[in-house]
Amino acid sequence: MATTTRVGSVTTEEQQLRIENAKLKAEVDKLRTAIGKYPPGPGAASTSSCSAGNDPENRSSLEFYTGIFGLEKSRIMDVVNQAMEELKKMAMAGEPLWVRSVETGREILNYDEYVKEFCVDQNSSNNARPKRSIEASRETRVVFFDLPRLVQGFMDVNQWKEMFPCIISKAATVDVICHGDAPNKNGAIQLMFAELQMLTPLVPTREVYFVRYSKQLSAEQWAIVDVSIDKVEENIDASLVKCRKRPSGCIIEDKSNGHCKVTWVEHLECQKSTVHNLYRTVVTSGLAFGARHWMATLQLQCERLVFFMATNVPTKDSTGVATLAGRKSILKLAQRMTQSFCHAIGASSYHTWNKVSSKTGEDIRVSSRKNLNDPGEPQGVIVCAVCSVWLPVSPNLLFDFLRDEARRNEWDIMSTEGPAQSIANLAKGQGRGNAVTIQTMKSKENSMWVLQDSCTNAFESMVVFAPVDITGMQSVITGCDSSNIAILPSGFSILPDGLESRPLVITSRQEKSNDTEGGSLLTMAFQILTNGSPNAKLTRESVESVNTLISCTLRNIKTSLQCEDG
Fold first, then answer.
1. Average pLDDT, integer, range 21-34
2. Alpha carbon of 529 to those of 89, 100, 177, 231, 485: distances in Å?
3. With bands split at pLDDT 50, 70 and 90, how would you rate the model's confidence at 33?
4. Rounded CA gap, 535 and 549, in Å?
5. DSSP-assigned beta bridge partners for residue 99
6. Residue 6 pLDDT > 50, yes or no?
7. What is the DSSP secondary-structure string of 228-273?
8. HEC secondary structure over 512-558
């Protein structure tokens, strides 16, 4: 009987998953069609935990790989085992393999040493493929999460996408090659697809196919390794060879008390391509898709889950909401809002972006979509406009300005009658900037409520917000299910510009840290419902109105922070 009380919410979540899965189907079907064309070759019988019996539905996919990609079962096992050994060495080794940069404090891979250590044949790969760049990075942090759930999060593709909404725009388990040993799936191997993004349409996404292998190294330690296998991408789509994973992944060590030490290695081989000037430094330095980005995001998401599950929340971390049920319902809605925002503003092939010029001269990217049946968004024609700019302001200062309800009326053209007021404030992380607020704003016509989710980590910050129906939000505050609240988020993504500046002179006088910070890369995105009918056409007036919204907001931000052009 316990499940019947959740039927409504489960149905809604299932609907959203079906929509997402339908969009992924085209990519996944490319490989599944290829697999279906070929009969299993000789010697393809599976053994040990890589077998699921004689049921054709559950039979190991290793049986079907022979003759398709030229990969015997033993070849796949050799590749993932070698990748696992390489990951362990890459995660544990110090100098001379990794050298710490004096200027940035980050670790840099000594590539000559890497080639010697792992016997990399540079000639064969260089002759076979166009000029490629190597990105290698490593980061170690302690996260507040227990080991079994963390491992499960990497092996369940839906949980993996939820853990990294700002980086993963699409992901799918194409095939389970080996199910692993119950109950923790030790030894599981699966072929996966991911489209990786930045929170701007200006940076192309990276599509990568790879095999993921999880292995328990000891009672307290697990490893998750990803590696691209030769010939897999070519058989699906030759264009996908633009980005490949060398052995990458993480070593997870249980530190007791619900904490884990995670060492993350990200090692990519990518075809060189042009990158927009604004983001060239961030991308070419390896920061955009590197270990620091993944690790900072993981740490923040683990904190969010801990704060979501907590039952002993201090009053100061949960003002304006009387019950734990209300707190959970609001945090769940805010998470959905931010995931939707991340999904809407990247360069994913889900979107078609058209360039228009703003009234202030910046380039704006505009896309539109029709929502027919997603209950989480308003139905009809939705326009999204995105603009990325550089501002000579530190990321911390910009983030604090944009999330502050007392200064909202300085940039928000909908907030015309003085500062917004916070009626609820819920902490969702240890940093003071990680919070969900409900704000009330007065305009000339009426008052409105806005749900805002602000989050910050060592790599990027976001302020995401959406107007909400007051009656619906009041029910959410009391603890009612939030899955039936339609929400259309707008917001900001803030990155350091990658130019980690140092003082121009050496002085004994203590300078504030902000004085030596570089500028910020600000991406602002606004979404508006232009017509409640999904059959309506996108009009020039709709594009014009969202253009005005972006232009006015940017002008207001520059004025308030005293960084106008000229």
1. 56
2. 52, 49, 43, 44, 15
3. low
4. 25
5. 108
6. no
7. --TTHHHHH-GGGGGEEE-SEEEEEEE-STT-EEEEEEEEEEEE--
8. CHHHHCCCEEEEEEEEEEEECCCCCCCCHHHHHHHHHHHHHHHHHHH
How many degrees, rounded to 5, is the angle at CA 508 between CA 503 and CA 513?
45
- Angstrom CA distances, 339 to 81, 86, 163, 376, 436, stand at 35, 34, 10, 11, 14
CB 395 within 8 A of CB 561: no
The encoded tokens of residue 113 equal: 């040493």
Collect all residues with Cβ–Cβ distance below 8 Å to 347 and sequence separation of at least 6.
197, 198, 200, 201, 202, 203, 204, 205, 353
Angle at 83 between CA 79 and CA 85, to 5 degrees: 120
pLDDT band at residue 231 using 50, 70 and 90 as cut-offs: low
* C-alpha span between 499 and 101 (Å, rounded): 14
Residues 6+ apart with CB under 8 A from 318: 327, 425, 426, 427
Length in residues, the chain: 566
How far is it, in rounded angstroms, from Cα 212 to Cα 218? 19
- Name which of 330, 347, 348 is nearest 338 in CA terms: 330
**Ramachandran bin of 469, using left for φ above 0, alpha for ψ from -120 to 50, beta for the remaining angles:** beta
* DSSP assignment of 28-59: HHHHHHHHHHS---TT----GGG---S-TTTS
User: Each residue of 267-316: pLDDT tens digit?
Assistant: 998 888 888 889 988 988 888 999 999 999 999 999 999 888 888 877 77
Which one of 28-32, 128-132, 346-350, 368-372 scores highest in mean pLDDT? 368-372
Integer Cα distance of 65 and 490 in angstroms:
45
Burial class (CB in 10 A: 0-12, 13-18, 19+), 486: middle
Closest CA to 490 of 456, 459, 524: 524
441-463 burial, b if ≥16 CB within 10 A, otherwise e? bbeeeeebbbbbbbbbbebbbbb
Q: pLDDT band for 151, please (50, 70, 90 cuts).
A: very high
Question: Is the pLDDT at 37 greater than 90, yes or no?
Answer: no
Residues in CB range of 192: below 8 A, 6 or more apart: 157, 171, 172, 173, 174, 209, 210, 211, 212, 226
* Residue 309 backbone phi and psi in degrees, to 5: -85, -15
Structure tokens at 34: 């290829």
> Mean pLDDT score of the chain, rounded to an integer?
81
Cα atoms in the 13 Å half-sphere on the side-chain side of 398: 32
What mean pLDDT comes out for the span 519-525? 94
Sign of CA dihedral 315, 319, 325, 331: negative
- Tokens encoding 57: 């539905």
d(CA 7, CA 43): 46
| CA dihedral for 305, 306, 311, 317, sign (positive or negative) | negative
- Burial label for 422, CB within 10 Å (0-12, 13-18, 19+), is middle
Q: How many CB atoms lie within 10 A of CB 387?
A: 25
As a whole number, mean pLDDT of residues 37-66 equals: 41
Strand partners, 266: 137
